[in-house]
Amino acid sequence: MVSASNDAVHGVALVDRVILSVRADPGRLVLDYNRWAGPWVDGEPVPLDGVAAFPSGRPLPASLRRWLAFDTTMLRRHGWFDDAGRLAPRSLASIAIEAYGEGLGSVYGTPALADRFGECFLLPGGSDSRRVLATGTPDAAGEYPVFALDVDDLPCIELMYPGFDVYLADTADVLGVERGPGYSSLAADRTYGPRMREHARHVFGGAYCEDLTDW
């Protein structure tokens, strides 16, 4: 069992490292290659406490609760909340259609994908690709996976991070792990590979990627 609160390379402790980095320069860009993703913090931090579950009833991972208690501006900018300040999940198809248009994005709306990716949240990352957190079965750290959507060749969805904690740390350049080629390269990492394999079993039957061959 992974200790998400005490192990410095998982969960809350990993997010605390990100927060220390962001506090040193809160206005720096989330993505140095894409200014449209905006800064880590818009102005003064806007924290949010007391949210324990997603609209589906699934519990928020401790890493996400810790980040929300620090600031919500980056996530608000990426559509995580409605006008009333409540978490507002989207389907995978709606995120893909907004990113790629109706024709290409609609291939992410098959019934099989809808069953597995019904509660999704967009995260900054990629240029033509997208990063999406999808709730479902959590891993041993209580985290939900983050996927990459890519349409460069054949539209696909690929497991990229085992949780919000690892996504946040890698995006903030505090993870300290050399990524190999391919979105799912963390599957070969000694620390994060076990969690990646958990999610691969839950979502793709052991694979790390699903090609959308109906396109």
What are the salient characteristics of this protein?
globular; alpha+beta; 215 residues; single chain; 11% strand
Q: Oligomeric status of the shown chains? A: single chain
Distance between the termini: 40 Å
Count of separate DSSP helical elements: 7
Helix content: 25-40%
* Rg, Å, rounded: 16 Å
Q: In percent terms, what proportion of residues is strand?
A: 5-15%
Largest sheet: 5 strands, antiparallel
Stretches where pLDDT is under 50 for at least 5 consecutive residues are: none
Look at the structure and give the mean pLDDT: 94
The shape, in one word, is: globular
Enumerate the strands of the largest sheet in spatial order, edge to edge or round the barrel: 1-2-3-4-5
Order of helices and strands: HHHHHEEEEHHE
Fold and architecture overview:
- 32% of the residues lie in helices and 11% in strands.
- It has 215 residues and is an alpha+beta fold.
- The protein is globular, with a radius of gyration of 16 Å.
